Amino acid sequence: MKAAGSAVMASVRDKNPTGVAKVAKSAQGAESVRVVVRCRPLFGKELDEGRERIVDMDLVAKQITIRHPKGGDAPKAFTFDSVYDQSVEQKAIYEDTAGPIVESVMEGYNGTIFAYGQTGTGKTHTMEGKDKPDELRGIIPRTFQHVFDNISIENDKEFLVRASFLEIYNEDIRDLLSKNPNNKLELKETPDSGVYVKDLTSFVVKGVQEMNNVLAVGKKNRTTGATLMNQDSSRSHSIFSITVETIDKIGAAEAAAGEEGHIRVGKLNLVDLAGSERQSKTGATGDRLKEATKINLSLSALGNVISSLVDGKSTHIPYRDSK
Description:
This protein has 323 residues and is of the alpha+beta class. It contains 8 helices and 17 strands. Helix 2 packs across helix 4.
């Protein structure tokens, strides 16, 4: 879209720890994948060049309509689970899209929220936002507050919260919390725990500030670079994971009788995908061009996985085509 950028967010709830790409099933067995679209306003270079908005959004009908900038062709309409125009604030998007997923994680489900779109469409703004003012905070910092707000009002449960942060750069997995963040890690899979990253650093966190500190350390190590379309373009996919272990407190009588509290484990993956790119638009050369090639290949693989999942007739899901 030349006139205005849009980012697609997908949220997934999954009762079984079998990887972030799986179509989730709720406790009732229904699919629980939501796809929403957010359209940002024009700014900076776009306004200077006199660009026009060609995307119309109907928040009630949950539909976007794209008009050809030169006219002629009929407008094309697309319907999603929710749509947000440039007037919708960060808080509203969080409460509608991410909040219910966080609640599910606290109940022992696995969830994933990821932002997908062309470079410069505002994915990182939606996922991370800015620390100040508060209304600009994105999904990730609001999630931190949500998790520990829930913990603070629970008197009958005990919690253990762990956090990890990785990036996938040029198809290599890097631990953003490691002392050596450039080291490459291996992706493993076991029947019991599913897909995991070997030797990935994980920190126990006891509050919002500690979680923010973990995020800040990882962000310093994340790979970014300038292109013609985005001065601070993410050159990698990042995954910030929060694992919440919950155990029900039991009384002295139950403990004496040998009873144990019920344990639940939920994991939330917060994913900021690098943006898809066209070399003719970004002016990428050298390392930037190599990065763009890897980014586009991995996003294409993600699209193939999603298509296979929603098809219903596919017998093979190509998870392994990309990390």
